[in-house]
Design brief:
Blueprint lengths: L7 E4 L9 H16 L3 E6 L9 H13 L9 E2 L4 H13 L3 E4 L3 H7 L20 H9 L5 E4 L1 H8 L3 E4 L9 E4 L9 E3 L7 H11 L4 E5 L6 H11 L5 E5 L19 H6 L4 H8 L2
Parallel strand pairs: 1-2, 2-3, 9-10
Antiparallel strand pairs: 4-5, 5-8, 6-7
Helix pairs in contact: 7-8
């Protein structure tokens, strides 16, 4: 007998800074969807960058989310504890001829790239795609930093056209079927230099491991779904349903971000804001 899986949603911040209003909106939006769907809300910590992710930011995330009135089951999945899982999936893609090593720096790519991806970054021109096994072995033997890129042309040749389902702002609206367009990203990095993964690989692997049925993310992340749908198909992982929520902007009309040092929830709390006031401001 077929049964409908329990809806499971997640909020997955990176502990590389303090949460701001944009994070609060995303967390509350996800929790609100979980409640409407009579499902579960999970917290996941995407802490694969050892140079930027710190324990004090993990503590701050948990404190801020509890202050907003959110709760979740334990234990919390931390990606820094799962590098062996990502390594296995990376090797699977390599064995199937879908990843190739790249030794180029960002400066080298920027100097020769012609087009940009949906995020505005230079599209990798494929410099290392045709290196011979001898050249690759020699450069790795010299200890050159190496990252692994997806051969998007080969991957899409094997998969054909892929689609994914997008739910609209309320669960009662009619779903939309959209086509994935991974080719507009060029050959994205699947395993960064010095690690076994990237955001793209770890997010699809962990969504599958946690049984995530609905992914809620900001509209700025919609284009990245192209890569995730492709990786899900290549690795034989289930594809969740997606919904893309609005972004919280500052007075200049720019997206809030840690890199721009947007006002943190902790600072707002210290200035006298209450959880109820935050929720009201964000429309919850």
């Amino acid at each position: 007998m077929n049964t409908v899986p329990e809806p499971i949603l997640r909020f997955a911040p990176s502990p590389n800074g303090l949460l701001h209003l944009g994070h609060a909106y995303s967390a509350l939006y996800t929790a609100d969807w979980a409640e409407k769907l009579n499902g579960r809300f999970l917290l996941r910590l995407e802490d694969t960058d050892p140079d930027r992710c710190r324990p004090e930011f993990i503590e701050a995330i948990i404190e801020d989310l509890h202050w907003l009135g959110l709760d979740w089951p334990e234990p919390v999945l931390q990606q820094s504890e799962r590098f062996d899982v990502y390594e296995k999936q990376k090797l699977t893609l390599i064995e199937h001829g879908l990843l190739y090593p790249c030794f180029c720096s960002r400066a080298q790519i920027a100097a020769i790239a012609v087009n940009t991806d949906p995020d505005g970054a230079p599209i990798y021109p494929g410099t290392c795609r045709h290196l011979t096994d001898t050249e690759i072995s020699h450069r790795i033997g010299k200890g050159e930093p190496v990252q692994w890129r997806l051969d998007t042309a080969e991957a899409t040749r094997r998969t054909g056209m892929l689609t994914y389902t997008v739910l609209q702002p309320t669960p009662l609206d009619r779903p939309q079927i959209r086509y994935a367009r991974p080719e507009r990203w060029g050959d994205p990095v699947i395993a960064r230099k010095g690690t076994a993964t990237s955001y793209h690989l770890s997010v699809v692997v962990d969504d599958a491991a946690q049984g995530i049925t609905h992914v809620t993310r900001g509209r700025d992340m919609e284009a990245a779904t192209d890569i995730h749908i492709l990786l899900q198909f290549l690795l034989g992982l289930p594809a969740p349903l997606y919904t893309f929520h609005k972004l919280i902007l500052d007075e200049d009309g720019k997206k809030l971000s840690k890199s721009r040092q947007s006002l943190a929830l902790r600072n707002m709390r210290e200035a006298g804001w209450t959880p109820e006031a935050i929720r009201t401001r964000l429309g919850f």
